[in-house]
Amino acid sequence: MSTASVNFKARQSIEQVEEGNDLAPKFDDRGLITVVTTDATSGELLMQGYMNAEALSLTIATGEAHYFSRSREVLWHKGATSGFVQKVRELLVDDDQDCIWLRVDVSGGASCHVGYRSCFYRRVPVGSSGDVELEWTDTEKVFDPVEVYGDAPNPTKL
Amino acid sequence: MSTASVNFKARQSIEQVEEGNDLAPKFDDRGLITVVTTDATSGELLMQGYMNAEALSLTIATGEAHYFSRSREVLWHKGATSGFVQKVRELLVDDDQDCIWLRVDVSGGASCHVGYRSCFYRRVPVGSSGDVELEWTDTEKVFDPVEVYGDAPNPTKL
Questions:
Q1: pLDDT in tens, chain B (158 residues)
Q2: Angstrom distance (rounded) from CA A110 to CA A148
Q3: Cβ contact A6–B132 (<8 Å)
Q4: pLDDT for A32-86, tens place per residue?
Q5: Which residue of B has its CA nearest to A121?
Q6: Angle at Cα A32 formed by Cα B152 and Cα B51, nearest 5°?
Q7: Which of A42, A92, A93 is the mutation pick for testing B, counting most B CBs within 10 A?
Q8: Which end of chain B is more exposed for a tag (fewer CB within 10 A), N or C?
Q9: CA dihedral sign, ordered B25, B28, B31, B33
């Protein structure tokens, strides 16, 4: 795959960043920018991740979502292991350009390493206090993580 | 307003965090958790922010979105200045409980300090490389930020 890269502009003024046409993303002190990924059809939130400059450039150039895995500390072409590649239908940037929104189509329909379609399969009851119990919004796994990932380490950190 | 608080559980195992009913959020080394806020009706991404434990507890207990402002370093009841309060219709947590998804109704329909409905009003053309130009998806401001915020400092940091 060719790796044509994207030029990011230097951040020079609030007006340029908020009201201009320059792509001048703000990477944090770890070199990362926050990414929000929703299903382009249903609007459902699939996952929230991070990109470094290389991942953002590759995502724009190839149209397939690339992230930076904080737990594994590597560039991460989403779907390279599981097959659930995310095709980017639309890529947006927020007002101060420190967040990217990907609207994607997911082949196979799964985005969560636990096996669910979305990472967000539990709800906190609003209006409650004290001890709260999570409620499940999705109880059916789309795939078996053991079959797909084998004995790869679980990315969740306590 | 009463400030009944919510008890968060200690994180003890991956199974508990990923597949249990305990609310055991992971706050980062700054004491913050990432929040993604979408319009409950349209599915549109309105903003991405952060909560500390107090903001998360208040959001759950009151049903109105509270954040922690990193630029101002204060608890932030969204809409306290602008009037654009976010009523939480659904609050979800992700697999490893380091991200919160709020599905909200916004009175007045604006969530962005620049004056747009959503913070995400510009698109990066996918499949491009080299110099890219942002494309505008929303060119009509819902409110005039100068009227609403007066001379309060702009939260965007370069």
A1: 456 789 999 999 999 999 999 999 999 999 999 999 999 988 889 999 999 999 999 999 999 999 999 988 999 999 888 888 999 999 999 999 999 999 999 877 677 888 888 889 999 999 988 999 999 998 788 888 878 778 777 888 88
A2: 12
A3: yes
A4: 999 999 999 888 899 999 999 999 999 999 999 999 999 889 999 998 888 889 9
A5: B94
A6: 50
A7: A92
A8: N
A9: negative
Closest-CA residue of B relative to A128 is B61
Nearest residue in A to B99, CA atom:
A48
> Which of 3.40.47.10, 1.10.760.10, 3.10.20.810, 2.40.260.10 would CATH assign to domain A25-112?
3.10.20.810
Task: Look up the CATH superfamily of B14-114.
Answer: Phosphoribosyl-AMP cyclohydrolase (3.10.20.810)
Q: Supply φ then ψ for residue A61, to 5 degrees.
A: -70, -40
pTM: 0.87
Neighbours of B7 (CB within 10 A): 11
One-letter amino acid of A55: A
